[in-house]
Design a protein that fits this description.
This protein is an alpha+beta fold. The chain folds into 2 domains: 1-90, SH3 type barrels, CATH 2.30.30; 94-189, Roll (SH3 type barrels). It has helices at residues 3-13, 73-77, 95-105, 164-173, and strands at residues 16-21, 29-36, 40-46, 52-59, 63-68, 109-113, 121-128, 132-137, 149-152, 156-161. Strands 5-1-2-3-4-10-6-7-8-9 form a 10-stranded antiparallel sheet. Strand 2 and strand 3 (40-46) form a beta hairpin.
């Protein structure tokens, strides 16, 4: 059974899955599949113990393996008030659609880029175009960057919203400052 079929089966059966992504150093995605688009999939993510932890979008082309979770966590998740996960409609057919729709749902988003180990860039969406996404970033100490930074859409591999970490960081950071994107402050990779 192919990747898309495994994801579709997990969606239809509301089964908790563990999704291994390429490259090998990518983080595993655990949770319940809640959407499959042309290029992206969406999971109601879970953390240790089966607690819900926001939503995570991933590129379908990066999926290496989809496995059913055999632990108690899926059963526990079904006892939570968030069950069943019912996200608002998200655009999963393009990177820009994913970023825009997830950013509209949450004050902060986290993006991961290809070939970056265990790194996530967190901020509020400032602007999204076909080739670039601009985030007004928040540092781990809750301070806002002076101006937005640009990231190439082709390098974005994962987008997260509503996690416990992002929710706490948004609370500490407060309202974002206003500014416009600077072409000199972008991701040159």
């Amino acid at each position: 059974m192919g990747t898309r079929k495994r994801l579709a089966a997990a969606l239809a059966q509301q089964a908790m899955v563990r999704i291994d992504l390429c490259p090998r150093h990518s983080e595993r995605v655990d949770g319940f599949v809640v959407g499959i688009g042309k290029k992206w999939g969406l999971v109601a993510a879970t953390m240790d113990g089966g607690y819900f932890d926001g939503y995570q979008a991933f590129r379908l082309k990066d999926v290496d393996r989809v496995r059913r979770d055999k632990s108690f966590e899926g059963r526990f998740a079904r006892t939570r008030p968030e069950w069943p996960p019912s996200p608002p409609p998200f655009g999963l057919d393009s990177t820009v659609g994913v970023v825009r729709s997830l950013a509209a749902w949450s004050p902060l988003i986290g993006i991961e880029k290809a070939n970056e180990r265990s790194a996530i860039w967190i901020g509020s969406l400032h602007k999204a175009g076909r080739k670039w996404v601009w985030l007004h970033e928040v540092a781990p100490d809750g301070s806002w960057a002076a101006e937005p930074l640009g990231y190439r859409t082709l390098r974005i591999t994962n987008v997260q919203v509503g996690t416990h970490y992002l929710t706490a960081l948004a609370e500490v950071a407060g309202d974002k400052p206003s500014s416009s994107p600077s072409e000199s402050r972008n991701d040159k990779q």
